[in-house]
Structure formats: structure tokens, C-alpha cells
Design goal:
The complex is a heterodimer.
Chain A lengths: L2 H22 L6 E5 L3 E5 L1 H7 L2 H4 L21 H22 L6 H13 L9 H9 L1 H9 L7 H11 L1 H14 L6 H9 L9 H4 L7 H14 L7 H7 E5 L5 E6 L3 H19 L2 H19 L3 E2 L2 E2 L3 H6 L2 H6 L7 H10 L5 E6 L4 E2 L2 H11 L2 H15 L9 E3 L8 H4 L1 E4 L2 E4 H4 L2 H12 L2 E5 L4 H16 L2 E2 L2 H4 L8
Parallel strand pairs in A: 4-10
Antiparallel strand pairs in A: 1-2, 3-4, 5-6, 7-12, 8-13, 9-12, 10-11
Chain B lengths: L14 H10 L5 E3 L2 H12 L23 H12 L4 E2 L6 E3 L2 H14 L2 H17 L4 H4 L1
Antiparallel strand pairs in B: 1-3, 2-3
Helix pairs in contact in B: 1-4, 1-5, 2-5
Classes of the chains: A alpha+beta, B mainly alpha.
């Protein structure tokens, strides 16, 4: 049975109870949902019926920023509140455009945009982006991605796309129409809005509100992640909303643009993104926790662990399970999964053995570049981790070794978003090359780490040192361990 | 070595190696570092009948203002972070490569690619060079 059919079966299972419920007891009034960042917000009865499905409720059990709460204790927010937030921001952007030109936003579109926003993250799996790495490695998923020309679309977006495109979801929306007397919702539109593919090639702004260079998703995650971690960032959303509009290009295409006086808030978005990456997403403890979650999932795959009867080798399992399934699953006592899980639950995190940057490594810069590339490729890295574990010996498993070079942040917003000037539309970075400036800062801040359990730090250090010398002729400078606050060469 | 020889037509080259090779064979040491220019040039090369085999693992989002590949952005970032390519100050618009680094990159390239592939690399390199040429204003 192919992937789309299996996803349809899963969607049917998820919707069956809710369908029965709303047929007998439809939601009879609008609801106000309070949000600490955006305030009180109105959701319509048919939207509440969608929010109440297991497809969306499941997101309450998927942390937005993985195990970042081990480092930033209040970062316990989930994909659920983020999805509501994105819906609210998407509406606010659409309303700003409507104020600028009433014709550009029709009521039918706004309703579809809100449903697409609610559903945009329903394809996320455990601990959000962490599990995406393993989903991307799945052969069946990869084949589907390639055959549908979706290689540039994030794995969770593809899963959300498949969910809203499934016949069962389509039927559910038809019932919604029957019960609440709403319009026909076009699931092709919903899918395209989620993956950022314009279904109306002349009205690209419609897609860009939800999935574009500066979009509702970005506004929400920047505000929500900074609020939840306590990191103080400045983002003048009111100004963004007042300056954002739609521009008609010479080729007749309508795109989301910002007025010239909206440059400052665009700068704020880019600076905030950079600071979130350097202070939070790439914080060494956050990365160590992320690596441990990936290890736990690797163990589950290797030990062929089933979660409620479903194996991780099936891509559909990724949208069945949530963080709780992973953190409460206990196998028989002597399994490595249990040992590893206990470490995570007790915040016994992997420690830094080596700090990796161009300043802490001695050798040929091309070799350093090759090492960076190799360790950024999941399969190559996995083999390196296995080799190093073997070099350490004493039964050390590769799950305990991580050489982590996180994906650098992209600042494509600067060149993919245009500003309206007197002489026409110009990409933001042609007015001020902020992307290069930010990349330059990021080049300085960017680093990788060798992580391992503290008990084997000495041996791991030595094995890694030999490994990179043998393979890349690279050596470690004192900075490599000084930054980790220890001295293995004593 | 990333390439896996199965006869020329089925040879798989990693785009990271191909991009390194293109830079190694450039006759100049400076080129336009604009994201838009680099992404556009590589998109054109990938879609060129003669060169498409070299970029099997490079994919572009065609629905943005210009074609955009996340993987290409990362490849450029790593070339930049490792200082194989340097961003010139204070404008941050121009990439530079030292003669010595270019020589070393060329040695590696010659080991990785066969003769036919090197000929293609030279053609791609010429095209890349033309498209990323720096104009006088940028040199100021």
C-alpha cells in the first residue's frame, strides 16, 4: 500500500470520532482563545471543530523547541499554540493587505488561509525538527519526495500536505460545509499554501502570507520562542503589519512587499532570527539534548521498537507518535533504550569534549571544509560516529558519540523579499546588504562540538583527535578543549 | 572521493565537489558573492543539457523571487566558514580565493574527476566566471 493511501487511513482513524461528535453536537458558537503574546482571539465554530480533531490536538504533545526546556526552563511551548498563533498572524497580515486593497483578499480565501495555517504543522513528528532528520532518511519517504519534485520542501510540510490532501480530510471538510453551511474548501489550495507553492501563479502573495520569505510562521516562532525562553528580542509587529502590502510587478505577478519605511522591522526580523540561532537553537546544551533525542530514535530504529504497535521504519508512524510516546516508552529492563531514556529524563546530558571551529583546528582549510561537509551529512556522520566508538572500545556505542555541526541559519529573506521604492521594487539586500553582514557574524559565531558522556570524555577526545588526523590531517589547538573548560593534555 | 564511476552517463558527482571544482578552475580570484547571482548561475548550470548530470543532488525551489537551493546555500556557507572563500570587507559583496588554496583545490579536483568531466568543469567554470564578473562599481 503506498504512502498516500496509508496516510489517508491514518487521517480517517483520526477524524472518525470528531466527525461523529460534530454531527450530533456541532460547535454552536464562536470561541475566544487567549494567547500570552497576541491576546484574545476569535475562532469560528467550524475552526473549533478542526482544532478539536486528534490531528491538531496531537500537537499539544510536540514541543516547539524540542528539549530546549532543559536549558531554558520555560521553553515548554508546543506546536499547538504555535499553530493557533500562525493562524492569527496570517489573518492579521491578510487584513493589512485588505486595508491596502480590498480586492486582494476575498472572504473565501481568508477562510482557506486560516484552515491551512491551523493545519500547517500537523505533519510534525516527535520533538519537531529533530525527528525530521530521520524521516528525511527514510527510503520510501525519500522516493516519494523525489518523484513529486518536493526535495526543497521540509519533511514535516510534506506530511502536512499529504494529510490535508487526503480523501478523508476532504470528506471531513465536506461534512464541515454541511454542518456549518460554509463554503467548499479546496484541499489543493490548502496543500499548496502549506508547502509554499503558489496555486495562482499571478497571485503569489496568497502563498507568501503563510510560507514566504517574511510570513506568519516566522512572526510567530520568533515572538513565541523568544517569549518562552526569556530571550529579549525587539520585533515591532505592529509596524510590520502597517507596512506590509502587495505589489504588482512588471510581469503582472502580485507579491508580498514592504514599503520603504518598513525596512527597520525587516532588519529586526533578521537580527532576531540571528540571535535566536546563536543564543538558543545553537546553544551547546540545546544541541546536546537534540543529539540525545536523535540517538534515542536511532536506538528505537535499531532495536526495532514499536510505539503502540507502529514501527519507525514506516513514515506514517512519524505522524502517529508524539513526544510523550518517546519519553514514556519503557522496554524490558536491560534495553539500551531504557538506559538512554533514563539519562534524558534525568537531564544527564552529553558533555562537550571538543569545540570545533576554524580557530580551534590546525591544518589545511580545504580539509576542514571537507570535514564540515562530511559531518553535516547524516549517513557519513553516522559512519564516523561508529568508527570513533570502535576506536574507543570498551563496548561504547555510537549513540554516545556526536560530532555536531548544526545547519547554519538562512538569511534568504534579505534577497527574496522586496521593498517598494520610488523607482520600483528592489530586494531588501540591494538597499542594505544585511544578509552578508549577518552571515559574516554567523561565520564568526558558528561552531561544532564533539559530544559524549562525561565518563568517557578522555577516551573520546583521544579517538577523535586520531580520527581527524588520520582522515583529514587536521589537529586540535588548545582552544578546542579550553572552550569546553577542561584540559585533556595535562 | 564522492564520484561513483558507472560509465560517464551514470556517474554520480556530489554537487559540493563540482562547485569546488568550478571555483578551482576559475581564472580570476574574485567574484560576485551575491546570493541571487550564485543561485541563478548554478540553477542555469543544473538545467543545461550538457551539465545536468553534475547536479543530481542539488534541488531548487522555483516558486520564490529567484530559484533557490538550501543545499547550495549551505555549500557556500561551508566554503566561506572554512575560509576557502573569503568575503571581502567592508562591503561583504565579493568572494575571494587565494592562489594557493585554488591550486590545492585544483589538485583535489583533478584526482576526483576524469578527463571528460574536467573538460565540462572548465566550460562550467568559464560560464560561472562570466556570470559572476565584478563590475567596477563593486570594486570600489
Amino acid at each position: 500500500m503506498n504512502l498516500e493511501i496509508r496516510i489517508d487511513e491514518f487521517v480517517r482513524e483520526q477524524l472518525i470520532k470528531q466527525l461523529k461528535k460534530i454531527k450530533s453536537y456541532p460547535v454552536n458558537q464562536k470561541k475566544i482563545i487567549h494567547d500570552p503574546i497576541i491576546g484574545s482571539n476569535l475562532f469560528l465554530p467550524h475552526e473549533i471543530s478542526i482544532i478539536d480533531t486528534s490531528l491538531i490536538q496531537r500537537l499539544r504533545r510536540i514541543h516547539q523547541t524540542s528539549l530546549a526546556f532543559f536549558t531554558f526552563p520555560s521553553a515548554t511551548h508546543t506546536r499547538f499554540e504555535h499553530s493557533l498563533g500562525v493562524t492569527i498572524w496570517a489573518t492579521k497580515i491578510a487584513e493589512s493587505i485588505k486595508e491596502y486593497n480590498n480586492e486582494l483578499i476575498k472572504d473565501n480565501f481568508l477562510k482557506e488561509l486560516r484552515i491551512a495555517s491551523l493545519m500547517h504543522d500537523c505533519g510534525h513528528s516527535v520533538f519537531s525538527h529533530i525527528s525530521e532528520c530521520l524521516l528525511a532518511q527514510n527510503k520510501e519517504f525519500d522516493a516519494f519526495r523525489k518523484s513529486n519534485d518536493l526535495e526543497e520542501v521540509k519533511p514535516h510540510e510534506i506530511m502536512s500536505y499529504l494529510i490535508v490532501q487526503s480523501p478523508s480530510f476532504q470528506e471531513f471538510l465536506s461534512e464541515i460545509k454541511q454542518i456549518y453551511g460554509k463554503q467548499n474548501f479546496n484541499t489543493d489550495h490548502l496543500g499548496d499554501l502549506i508547502i509554499g507553492r503558489p496555486y495562482d501563479s499571478y497571485k503569489k502573495y496568497k502563498t507568501q502570507i503563510l510560507n514566504g520569505a517574511i510570513d506568519a510562521d516566522k512572526l510567530d516562532y520568533i515572538l513565541r520562542d523568544s517569549y518562552s525562553t526569556g530571550l529579549k528580542l525587539v520585533l515591532d509587529v505592529e509596524r510590520i503589519l502597517s507596512q506590509i502590502s502587495v505589489g504588482k510587478k512588471d510581469n503582472g505577478i502580485y507579491e508580498l512587499v514592504m514599503d520603504l519605511s518598513g525596512i527597520s522591522p525587516v532588519e529586526q526580523i533578521l537580527f532576531s532570527k540571528m540571535l535566536l540561532f546563536s543564543n538558543m537553537y545553537h546553544h551547546q546544551k540545546v544541541r546536546a539534548s537534540d543529539c540525545m533525542i536523535l540517538s534515542l530514535l536511532e536506538i528505537a530504529l535499531d532495536e526495532e521498537i514499536n510505539f503502540s504497535g507502529y514501527a519507525l521504519k514506516d513514515p506514517v508512524t512519524f505522524i502517529r507518535i508524539n513526544d510523550n510516546d518517546i519519553l514514556t516508552h519503557h522496554k524490558k529492563k536491560d534495553s539500551y533504550y531504557n538506559t538512554y531514556l533514563d539519562r534524558i529524563l534525568n537531564r544527564n546530558l552529553l558533555q562537550r569534549a571538543v569545540y570545533l571551529s576554524k580557530d580551534s583546528i590546525k591544518g589545511n582549510r580545504i580539509s576542514y571544509k571537507d570535514m564540515l561537509e562530511d559531518f553535516s551529512d547524516y549517513e557519513t556522520l553516522k559512519n564516523a560516529r561508529k568508527d570513533i566508538a570502535k576506536m574507543i572500545g570498551s563496548g561504547v556505542k555510537y549513540y554516545d558519540i556526536w560530532i555536531d555541526f548544526p545547519d547554519p541559519p538562512s538569511f534568504k529573506e534579505a534577497s527574496q523579499f522586496e521593498i517598494r521604492t520610488l523607482s520600483g521594487y528592489k530586494p531588501f539586500n540591494e538597499i542594505f546588504p544585511i544578509d552578508k553582514w549577518l552571515t559574516s557574524y554567523n561565520l564568526f559565531r558558528y561552531r561544532g562540538h564533539l559530544f559524549c558522556p562525561i565518563e568517557i570524555r578522555d577516551k573520546t577526545y583521544k579517538s577523535f583527535k586520531n580520527y581527524i588526523f588520520e582522515k583529514y590531517k587536521l589537529e586540535l589547538k588548545p582552544l578546542a578543549w579550553e572552550m569546553c573548560k577542561w584540559n585533556p593534555e595535562k | 572521493m564522492q564520484a561513483c564511476e558507472e560509465g560517464k552517463k551514470n556517474t554520480f558527482y556530489s554537487s559540493r565537489d563540482v562547485i569546488g571544482a568550478i571555483i578551482a578552475y576559475m581564472k580570476v580570484n574574485k567574484f560576485d558573492g551575491s546570493t541571487k547571482t550564485i543561485q541563478n548561475v548554478l540553477f542555469e548550470l543544473k538545467n543545461h543539457e550538457d551539465f545536468k548530470n553534475y547536479f543530481d543532488d542539488l534541488h531548487f525551489n522555483k516558486f520564490l523571487l529567484y530559484p533557490y537551493s538550501k543545499k547550495l546555500e549551505k555549500i557556500i556557507f561551508r566554503l566561506n566558514h572554512s575560509t576557502v572563500l573569503k568575503l571581502s570587507n567592508p562591503e561583504y559583496r565579493i568572494f575571494e580565493i587565494d592562489d594557493e588554496v585554488k591550486r590545492n583545490l585544483k589538485i583535489i579536483t583533478d584526482e576526483k574527476f576524469d578527463k571528460d568531466a574536467i573538460n565540462d568543469i572548465i566550460k562550467m567554470s568559464d560560464f560561472f566566471e562570466q556570470q559572476t564578473m565584478i563590475n567596477k562599481d563593486q570594486c570600489l
